[in-house]
Amino acid sequence: MQNREWKGVLCVDAVKLTIDGREVEVPAGTTILEAAEQIGIDIPRLCFDPELSLQGSCRLCVVEVEGAPLLSASCVTPVGRGMVVHTESPLVVETRRTILELLLANHPLDCLTCEKNGDCRLAEYCYRYGVKDSSFAGERHHYPIDDSNPFVLRDMNKCIQCGKCVRACAEIIGKDNIDYINRGFDRKVATYGDKPYVDSVCTFCGNCVAVCPTGALTEKPMQGKGRRWELDRVRTTCPFCGVGCNFDLCVKDGKLVGVLSNPDSPANGRALCVKGRFGWDFVNNEQRLTTPLIKREGKFEPASWEEAIDLISTRFTEIREKYGPKSFAALSSARCTNEENFLMQKFTRAVMGTNNVDHCART
């Protein structure tokens, strides 16, 4: 038994193995895929996700382990002491090409117009292994596109049945809105009774979209707004509540066109609610106020910030002097930061002289 310190934690039974000629030592129970990542070796995967339970169904992550009778799925195979692994041997590469061809045999090749172009794992791996078409001919699915709701566009013709959306709905959200139905060639991911999303118990959080590796699930409000490589991603904090979820604002030509999850978000990972992921359209609303307005002779007129702040200061002072501090109250918002809420209550108590402070989140 060997004891090793791993990322600051004392681990029992450190396992030493060789991957593509490079020696690595990891804790017992680590998978081959995780061990390979520790030394910068990228093994392709479609069904694996670090935030979801292991499934090992796509088989694209297979590797060759010396002495093993068959190729092993690296995402679910634990490391063994003295194991020698090859991640890009001729047999492994040929197997992955065959798997990709099998997927393409029942997958639309409309990559030029697909919304996921540039961010599609299937296309990425086909390019990596030189797979341009499928040598397998046969029947194809022709499912209708589900655009019954304003948030998620579902094209089951592009589904590769990796199961990530099913697991995300069950394990992250706890909703179990989707699962597999039917068997064999007719097996697919669907809601209860195979109803459209809009008629199901879906909350439209879009977390299934965030984990989908292909164009089967895409953000409907972002359709036609720009390719993924054209978008500038600006990390920010969601303003809708006090949880502090982070996400990336997608900006093109100086205009907000969508929101995408950021896996490095400390509070939420890629998980978002419907407000965080899809409640951004007000930013571009033509009725949104972009300058202060002051009412003069019964009509609102544009004013500078200096004019507006001076007027507020004058009126607050008049109210306090005429009616007393207790005539004033402040109601804060969950959309504000902690610092902004602190300043609001500080102003109310120190400047206006009252403790009449409340917050919308209290209710």
TrEMBL record:
An example Gene Ontology CC term for this record: membrane
GO BP field: respiratory electron transport chain
InterPro entries: 2Fe-2S_ferredoxin-like_sf, 2Fe-2S_ferredoxin-type, 4Fe4S_Fe-S-bd, 4Fe4S_Fe_S_CS, Mopterin_OxRdtase, Mopterin_OxRdtase_4Fe-4S_dom, MopterinOxRdtase_cofactor_BS, NADH_UbQ_OxRdtase_ferredoxin
Keyword Iron-sulfur: yes
Domain 4Fe-4S Mo/W bis-MGD-type: 231-287
Keyword Lyase: no
CDD domains attached to this UniProt entry: fer2
All residue ranges annotated as the 4Fe-4S ferredoxin-type domain in the record: 150-178, 194-222
Stretches assigned to the 2Fe-2S ferredoxin-type domain: 13-91
Domain 4Fe-4S His(Cys)3-ligated-type: 91-130
Domain of life: Bacteria
Alphabetical keyword list: 2Fe-2S, 4Fe-4S, Iron, Iron-sulfur, Metal-binding, Oxidoreductase, Repeat
Molecular function GO terms recorded: 2 iron, 2 sulfur cluster binding; 4 iron, 4 sulfur cluster binding; metal ion binding; NADH dehydrogenase activity
Pfam family, one: Molybdop_Fe4S4
Name of the molecule in the record: NADH dehydrogenase
Organism: Formimonas warabiya
